[in-house]
Amino acid sequence: MPAKHFRRAKPLESGARVALIAPAGPLQRTEDLPRAQENVRKLGWKAVVAPHATERIGYLAGNDRDRLNDINSALRDPEIDALWCLRGGYGIIRILSGIDYDAISKTPKAIIGYSDITALHAAVQRKCGVITYHGPTAREPMSDFSRDSFQRAVVSQTDSCGTAANAREINAGAAEGRVVGGNLAVLASLCGTAFMPDLTDGILILEDINEPVYRVDRMLQQLKLSGALNGCKAIAFGECVKCSDDGAGGRAFDDVLGETAKELHVPCLAGIPVGHIDQQWTLPLGAMAALDTGTRTLTITSYTS
Known about the structure:
By secondary structure, the protein is of the alpha/beta class. The chain has helices at residues 32-42, 64-76, 101-106, 118-128, 144-156, 184-190, 213-225, 253-264; strands at residues 17-21, 46-49, 82-85, 110-113, 132-134, 162-163, 168-171, 174-183, 202-209, 234-241, 268-270, 283-285, 288-292, 297-302. The two termini are 18 Å apart.
């Protein structure tokens, strides 16, 4: 059964040991790993590079066995405080069944990343009821905006969001609920599996990249028809980067999103700072939050339940 009560990992203090892992797609530039190590250092932590972090087999960061071993070794190691993913891409779904969820349940650790890392977040939410962090991958340059939100989430464990001044009100209203979601395509791929998170009473955060509007429509329909959206309290879409109207007969993204929100009778915003963008919030998935479309605010209210 889906977890109903969520716990949090301890805040990442100075000196924390952070495992840098590549559980999905491979690193693509020689500077990616050094930048990730520098990001860890600037935050006052110590980087521990996973043994297979720089491997590559086509579109995967090494074979499934080695990527899985890197995750499980970090989860089981009492000296590791957090797992920070180096990249998204694709590949987490291939190893979900082998992850040591007992280790996460016994000793919650911060897991950080976005895009394909949504599959790992979702599985941990479903199996363990542990808060994880939808935020920048370790290899990315971090703007002041992104670093501030990141530190408020994983260090201070306070409100890491706020006002999204440029967000668009799609369906008016306010709601409170648990932060759930992540990448739309990844969530849709989990429908019907044992790793799909429970979205009931959730504020559903979504983002995606390189998806024409008709495919966004199809994935929203898949979530709806599967029953996953039953009981959802609100929807907040981040950036849908390079999501053109091509092939959709000219339908606007906001119209497609609005259809779903209005059918569910839930408030909805679009354009919050989440997704494949430089300026992004870090979201504590599993924490409690409040959304208000009138003030264009998302507020993290509690890391405990």
